[in-house]
């Protein structure tokens, strides 16, 4: 099984465009060398929110809070 990898913004946009042009999800996944489930989740996210980017995680929020606290102390 190939190692897991994330799609960058360009690849995500390309995947959605191919899907909207009628290319099956399995073929999109094959073209981008990812599993079908990656494409299924991307398409579900896009149809639900209209965005290809993932939501920010709690880790991102903590990181920003830490940067704000550190910068206030300086």
UniProtKB/TrEMBL annotation:
InterPro entries: Homeodomain-like_sf, WH-like_DNA-bd_sf. It comes from the Eukaryota. It holds the Pfam family HTH_23. SUPFAM superfamilies: Homeodomain-like. This is Paired domain-containing protein.
């Amino acid at each position: 099984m190939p190692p897991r990898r994330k799609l960058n913004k360009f690849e995500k946009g390309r995947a959605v465009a191919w899907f909207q042009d009628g290319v099956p999800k399995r073929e999109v996944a094959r073209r981008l060398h990812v599993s079908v489930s990656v494409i299924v989740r991307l398409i579900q996210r896009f149809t639900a929110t209209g965005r290809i980017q993932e939501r920010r995680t709690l880790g991102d929020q903590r990181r920003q809070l830490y940067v704000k606290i550190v910068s206030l102390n300086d």
